[in-house]
Amino acid sequence: MTALSLATRSIREHLPVSDVGFGAAQLGNLNRRTTDEESTAAVHAALAAGVTYFDTAPHYGLGLSERRLGAALAGTPRDDVVISTKVGRLLVDSPDTADRQDDQGFVVPASVRREWDFSADGVKRSIEASLARLGTDRIDIVYLHDPDDHEEQATREALPALIELREQGVVRAIGAGMNQSAMPARFIEAHDIDVVMLAGRFTLLVQTALADLMPLALRRGVAIVAAGVYNSGLLSSAQIRPDAHFDYAPASDEVRERAERLAAICHAHGVDLPSAAVQYPLRHPAVVSTVIGMRSVAHVESSIERRTSLIPEDLWAELAGAGLAPDPVGAA
């Protein structure tokens, strides 16, 4: 690891977060098993490196990620960390499927099932269950989780319920976490939300959010948390792998060619492509943190190194000049 340290940025000027966040989906056995010991070690390594922001969700491992994260943070003063989780998928007991494995990518028994619910009651029940799994008395940030097919109910019920809970002090900030930018932009226009977690739509490879969400967020003072910065792993290695994925599917020739151009320019400047992928979103003034999925101490160390490595300004200028990634510094 480098000797540099992480920076802190604030949501609404009252909720400071580290500019690298710990994405805890993998603590829910995403794609393969992870032990309790590996999970705890990763969280503790992140804390030691200066990470203060930890993100999870009931969806991740059918509650396993929340339980493991809560256990790993149990000895840490609560005011030293910011925890976010999500609502919209209630976990309901499912004894009929308990002998099967989850079918949504997590290696856990399907003893509960996910049930879409963006009602006011569903939001409150979800938060109550998350508080119990996390073993805490409050959740700092609550996101609507992928409400793509539930916009009407999310707008009419879920967001007003979250605003009420924020006013009561149960949560400190509210928003939405999505893989698109158009709907979160509409949420910002319709409601007083604080933060949007945007996955894969403001990255070194894809900047579609610059057309709608990013300028609106900046004008309204809404923070952006950038997730999915590797675009399903495409940008996670210095050289583009032959089996690379993009948007959860095999990358097309066109997308691969664009990624290879990015990698070549980074290499010419002596920069590791994943480091540029981590640091690029943070150049936008609305972005407060980049959340990176971490499973192990090695993942933590590589993520911190990528964030803190020095990148010459000439790289950003060349990427912008090549029409690959406009430099968002100074965006207004």
TrEMBL record:
Coiled coil: none annotated. It comes from the Bacteria. GO terms for molecular function: oxidoreductase activity. GO terms for cellular component: cytosol. CDD domains: AKR_FDH (cd19162). Residues 20-319 form the NADP-dependent oxidoreductase domain. PANTHER family: GH17980P-RELATED. This is Putative oxidoreductase.
